[in-house]
Structure formats: C-alpha cells, structure tokens
Design goal:
By secondary structure, the protein is mainly α. It has three domains: about 120 residues, Four Helix Bundle (Hemerythrin (Met), subunit A), CATH 1.20.120; about 60 residues, Arc Repressor Mutant, subunit A; about 60 residues, Butyryl-CoA Dehydrogenase, subunit A, domain 3 (Up-down Bundle).
C-alpha cells in the first residue's frame, strides 16, 4: 500500500452537507441561510485554504469529495488489486487536485478533480502494479479488454471470441491478441509454485522443475567435431604435447620433463602443431 501523508485523517467519515456537518462551514465562515452556505461552501473553503492557509478548510474539502474518490476507485477495481490501495491512490489524486485548483477560473471543481484522480489511478497501474513494464497504450488496452471480456461473458453466457472483443474495444484482432499476451506480464509467478499436473504427470513438481538448464555437453560435442579432423593433421607426439599444455595446463618445462625433451623443443612442437592445424582449418 502506498503511504499518503495524513491519510488517516483523510479517511474520516464524510459529514453530511446539511444540518450539523459541512454546511456549518469551518470556524469563522459567515452565518447565512443554510442553502446558501451549502452552495457557497466550496468557494469559501477553497478561499480559506488557498489564501489563508486554513488546514481545517482543506481537510473539509477532502472529506467532502471522498465519495467521488471511492466511486472512481471502484471503476478501476479488478483482479487482485485491493480496493483499499486504489482508494488511497485516488485520495492522493484528490489532494493534488485540491492543492492545484484555481477557484478564480469559475470551473466546477469536480470537472477538474476527476481527470486528476483518474490520471493518478492510471499512473499507479502503469508504474507500480505490472511485474514487467509494457507500453502505456498496451496497458490501457489490456484493461479495456479485461473489462470487455467480463461484460461480454455475462451478456452472452460464454467466452467471447477474439473478433468479438476486437469489435467491442475498436481494435484489431492482432492488438487484442497482444493485449491478452501482455496480461500475463501483470503478475509474476513464483518458480516455487506447484506445477499443474496433466494426466497424473508432474504431480508435486514446481514450475522451476520444468525449466531447461544450460547443457555443456553440446558445446563439447561441437568442439570435438571441429578438432577431430584438425588433430588428424599432426603427429601423435604433437597431439600429446597439445593435450598436456591446453587440457592439463602444464608448463612447457613440465611437459619437457614428462616427454624427455627441452623446453625449447616443446615450444617448437606446439608452434608447429598449431600452424598445421590452422592451415587445415582454412587459416593462413
């Protein structure tokens, strides 16, 4: 859950707009008719919060629009994402909207707050919920496809086809297939998770048990296939010297002691053998 400073105070029960709640206004607001207070409270609270630094007025504005926050958060609730996390993210968007709103533009605050809150929710899904980063437009298409599949499945009482989903979301079938494949990147699966048994096989195994490993034998087989015809071009003594030098990692002096020749002769044998092997391999 993403921390929001002062969130515990933000989530207090929303007071009513009439009677004893928000209509009474923060301390110091002019006492007018109750209907006038309810209509003018937003402008008054914004004025006090913006021009007088009234933290109480700011909190009252946050409390007033928490129902809007919850409604927008529920719109994006799907899968395993907890609603409490979405409400917290949307509340952060509401606080940003309140702090940035310019009351002098004479625009209804909700028309400014909704895009800001939705932007915060979309940013949350884009940056914090995907296990693998995918392009933003593909993320949004995944969400649309997910909601469309749910809606069509309920209405048709069957799983919709790719072409039906494509028509509903106004995208091509290839884009829908990309979205369905990208949806698998939303949540990571532990390699220790149990593997689904098929036909009684694989019971008790984990996903890690099904993964391939690097097999060094293939490389050794390739090297043997390359070296075998080249080694046939040199003498048995030269092959022994090369084996002792490059396979057993002996020094030239140790090789000389092993086969009864000087270090200089060992060096000459190695050089001659490598030259003939290079020629046999097509080298200079």
């Amino acid at each position: 859950m993403i921390p929001v400073r002062g969130y515990a105070r933000v989530m207090r029960p929303t007071p009513s707009v009439s009677g004893q709640g928000l209509a009474a206004g923060p301390p110091g607001l002019p006492a007018t008719a109750e209907g006038t207070r309810a209509q003018a409270s937003d402008a008054e609270l914004f004025a006090r919060a913006r021009h007088h630094g009234d933290a109480h007025a700011r909190e009252l504005l946050i409390e007033r629009y928490l129902p809007l926050v919850r409604r927008l958060a529920r719109r994006y609730q799907h899968g395993e994402e907890p609603l409490d996390d979405l409400v917290q993210v949307a509340s952060l968007g509401l606080i940003k909207a309140i702090d940035r709103f310019d009351v002098e533009r004479e625009v209804v605050f909700s028309s400014y707050a909704v895009p800001t809150i939705l932007g915060e929710l979309k940013r949350h899904f884009r940056d914090r919920t995907w296990s693998v980063r995918v392009p933003r437009d593909l993320q949004e298409l995944v969400l649309r496809v997910d909601r469309t599949i749910t809606r069509l499945s309920v209405g048709q009482r069957r799983s919709p086809s790719v072409s039906e989903i494509a028509r509903a979301v106004e995208a091509s079938e290839e884009q829908v297939l990309d979205a369905l494949e990208a949806a698998a990147a939303y949540r990571a699966t532990s390699l220790d998770a149990p593997r689904a048994a098929v036909g009684g096989e694989g019971a008790g195994e984990s996903i890690a048990d099904t993964l391939g490993v690097e097999e060094g034998g293939f490389r050794r087989a390739e090297e043997h296939a390359i070296l075998e015809p080249l080694l046939a071009r040199i003498t048995p003594r030269e092959r022994l010297v090369l084996q002792l030098r490059f396979a057993e990692d002996l020094t030239q002096a140790e090789i000389g002691e092993r086969i009864g020749v000087s270090q200089m002769q060992v060096s000459r044998l190695i050089r001659q053998a490598l030259v003939r092997m290079r020629v046999g391999d097509g080298g200079e």
